[in-house]
Structure formats: C-alpha cells, structure tokens
Amino acid sequence: MPSASPAANSGPVPTEASALDMTSVLAGVWGNKLATLVLAPSIAVFLWFFVAYQTSPLKKYPGPFLAGWTNLWRVWQVISGEYAPRMKKLHDKYGPIVRIGPNLLDLDMPELYRIIYGTDGKWVKSDFYRNSSSVIDGKITYHMFSETDPTLHAQIKRPVVRHYSVPAVLAMEPLMDSVITDFLDTLQKRYVEPNKTCEFGDWLSYYAWDFMGMVTFSTKFGYMEQGTDFDGTLAIADKSIDYLALCGQMPWTDFVLDKNPIYPIGPPNVGNVTRIAIQNLTARLKGEDKNFTEGKPDFLQYFIESKSTHPDLVNDGSVIGYLLLNLIAGADTTAITMRALFYHLLKHPHTYTRLQADVRAAFPSPFEPASYAKARAIPYLEAAVKETLRYHPAVSMIMERIVPEGGLTLPHGLGVVPAGQMVGMNPYIVGRNKSVFGDDADEWNPARWLQRAGEGEDEYKDRMQRWGQSLLAFGGGYRICLGRNLSMMEVYKVVPTLLATFDIELEDPNEVWWTCSRWFYRTKGVVCRLKPRSG
Ligand code: HEM
C-alpha cells in the first residue's frame, strides 16, 4: 500500500511505496531472467523431442503415446515389476509390432528369429547390455554377456566355449550327483522327518547356488547347510540384475551412477562370491585346493586349461571373470526355471500326477540321483521342461539388437526398419504367440509338446522345429546362452530325483506366488509339504 505521510517522502530512506516499486521492478527483472532461464531450455528440449518424434522412422508403428517420446516410459515399466505381462497386454492391443521406445520396436514375429538372432555377427547387442560391466584398475571391463562388439566378444568366448558343450558338462555329473544327494538328505532331515512346512521355492535357490559353486570350483557356498542366504549374496545378485534392467533403458545413466570416478553408486558387488573365486583360484594354482579331485573336472580346472590353450587371451583376471559370470548368469536363471516348473505342476495336479508316474516308472528307487541320459528319455518330463521355458522364461524382457546396414524388412508389407534403430523379441511374448502355440497359449499345458493323436512322425518333427524358433528362453544365434547345456542338465537331473524321492504338495493349494518381471522373471513362494514317497 502507498504511504500517506509527506515527511516520509523527504529523506533518503525509500518510502514503502518506492520499496514496493523496487521489489516489483526487481521481481520483474528476475522474473524475466528466471523465465528465460527456465523457459528457454524447456522450449528447446520440447522442440528437440517434438522434432525427434515427428521425424522418427518408427513413428508409423503403434504403441503407447509416451513410449514414442521418451525412454522414461520404459523405466516405469521396469519399476512396476510387471514388465512382461504389461508388454503382453500391449501386443494384445496393438498386434505383433509395438513401439516401446523412441528408437525401439518390440516384435512378436518368430519368423524373424533366425535373422535378428542369427549367427553371422551382423546383429549387435544394444547398449542395454553394457552397464553389466565393472571398473577394474580404472578401466571399464566387459564380460561375455556385456561385450557388444562381435570381435571382442568372440575373443572372450573362444577360449571357453567348448567347456560348456554337452560332453564337457556331462563329465561333471559326479559333482552334480554329490550336490543332489546333499539336497535330498537336507530336505529329508529338515522337513520330511519332522513333518515341517518347507519354503521349497527358497530351497531351490539355495540348491542352485550350491550346485553352481560345486561345478564351478568344487565347493558349495553353504546355502543348503545354513538354510538361508547367510551372506546376502542372493539378495545382492537380485539388486545387480535390477540395476541392469533399469539403467539399461537409458544406458547413459550408468555413466552417471556407477562409472563416474567421483562417487559411484552402482549396484553392490557380489563381494563374497568374488572372494571365494579368488581364494579357489589361488589355492588351485598353488596345488593346495583340497576340494578338487583329479578326474572330477570343474569349470575352474577348465578355465585354467584355457590359460595354456589361449595364453594371448586368458589370464588370471579373465579366469575370475569367467567364474563370476557362471554364478551370476547361471544360478538364479536355473532356480527360476525349477521353481516355475514345480509351481505350475503343483497348481495343475493332473500334470504333477502324470509326471510323477512317468518318472517313478523310470526311477524306481528314491534317494538316487537320476542319470541325465535316462531322464532325457522321459517324454513328459521333456514336455514339462519345454512348457516351463515357454510359459515362464527366466529372462522376461526384450533382447535388444541394433538393426544393421540394409535395414530390417518386416513381413506382411509392414515396412523396413532402417539401420541404427533397435528391435528385439521378448521370450515371454513370443512364447505366448497364439498363431504358433494355439489359442490356449496363455495356459500351462505340457502335453502340447507331445506327439498328437494322428500326427505323423515328420509332421511332429516339423512342428517341433517351428515351435523351437519361438522358444527364446535361451536367446539365439551367436549370443545364445552359453550355459544352456549345463542348466538343462541340472534341471533334468534334479527334478526327477525329487519326484522319485518325495511326495510334494503345496501347503496351501490356493497359493498365488509372488512374481516380479524385470530382466529376470523373479518369483517367491511354492511353500510345500514334503512326504516320503508313497508309491
Ligand atoms: C534356465 C537357465 C538359463 C536361462 C533361461 C538363461 C537365459 C539366457 C538368455 C536369454 C541369454 C541371452 C540374452 C540375450 O541375448 O539378450 C543368456 C546368455 C548367457 N547366459 Fe544364460 N541362461 C540360463 C543359464 C545359464 C547358465 C547356467 C550359465 C552359465 C553357466 C549361463 C551363462 C550365460 C552367458 C555367459 C550368456 C551370454 C552369452 C553371450 O552373450 O555370448 N546361462 N542366457
């Protein structure tokens, strides 16, 4: 309000009125500056996004409005923990092509499998994968999963690929049998004899981690002995996979969060596992490793051999890298698969009963680790495993690839995706493709994988080959999962052994398990009662 006192106007002291004028002048000046400071960049950013959106070659493809503008939309889908089911809803709405990022198409087109996930090395992994790396001696170091350059990737893979072949992994069967025997004994003592409820889902994780410890360096971590994630490794592994999934949507964030030299705040390290890996390598090299028995090979032994066969490519540092990747990539994925297999069998008792009967016919005695060769000869077991990989793949996000020179010609005249854009398929989505698996693709039904009544041998083989191209649980092409033979051997051995040894029931037949779909399709639950084998 202006002052009414004339005296007040005579001195040098500003009047209330002039002070207010000054304030409003300053406010005007600062307001203008502030407006310029805030508004101008906002307009520039908006224009940048607008032009990028309008001129994008992917603009014509359908998808959620926001997804075409910013990758933040995808970050939100990951945070939700419902990534795969949400993507499935989008495919149900928009069809086989959904634009899920300004430069990314999610394709439900199994016919493109051999092109996008080919063996020619032309389709390169996107930067999504690169944040799964560590800073060693100040240098960002990539491993087999995260290295995107095909030449460098081949250099990492070449020295060890043969160690993951079926014969190399079969040579580890004695080690596997010892862990399985331990698993049975532990369950028997802790749960069957005292007739106690078993957190069976958790135990499959403890088993999977101890199994990987055993085949990797002939030592169990001790999760089965302790009956808990005593050193927090399992929880840390979950966090590091979530970090991959989240930062992977905007890969530059990894350079701000984890790779900045001042204050890195990336995922926690699996420090305990690293320590165990280093201890084992050192002891083995000094000839002091008491866990290792000649004639019972493990991956550590194989990797040490690789130092001699490929001295130019493998050193002690790379051996540690190989050891850690085995554990991070191999334990949870296999645990997820086994948990899903048991959950769905138990939720569909007719499938459980059938598998149990077929397994017990092949394995009449309890407490004997099933031989891999014999287990593979049980058709319904094979069907149940394939159905699990289809219905609940351990990896439940799109596997991004960069479109190479020449672009990607989409089928049915849907256009050409130019080079430099990103496309990919999600094992969960393609696994539920109704044109491949039928109208009941959203249901669990192992029998779909069996030869149908009236279906000829050739016809069946042909169907299995086509279906195989839609089973992306292990990825494909030159980046296909390195550990698939190992994990399948683990599953094919332990599942029949458990079914032959115990009667397994859900404690609550109405149990609905907890799921979280990010890079891994994590689950919790499958609380069971284990009883001595009845028949
Ligand atoms: C059921 C168990 C498993 C599933 C479902 C699974 C799934 C996958 C998938 C989908 C990929 C490809 C990712 C992509 O291309 O984007 C992959 C890659 C990989 N997996 Fe597995 N995995 C399993 C077990 C294992 C095991 C046991 C190991 C190691 C012992 C392993 C080691 C690897 C490695 C090293 C890669 C990277 C290969 C490369 O890029 O050349 N995985 N896995």
Automatic annotation (TrEMBL):
It comes from the Eukaryota. Pfam families: p450 (PF00067). This is Cytochrome P450. Keywords: Heme, Iron, Membrane, Metal-binding, Monooxygenase, Oxidoreductase, Transmembrane, Transmembrane helix. Belongs to the cytochrome P450 family. The chain crosses the membrane at residues 34-53. Heme binds at C481. Its cofactor is heme. InterPro entries: Cyt_P450, Cyt_P450_CS, Cyt_P450_E_grp-I, Cyt_P450_sf, Cytochrome_P450_monoxygenase. The keyword Transmembrane helix applies. GO terms for molecular function: heme binding; iron ion binding; monooxygenase activity; oxidoreductase activity, acting on paired donors, with incorporation or reduction of molecular oxygen. PROSITE patterns: CYTOCHROME_P450.
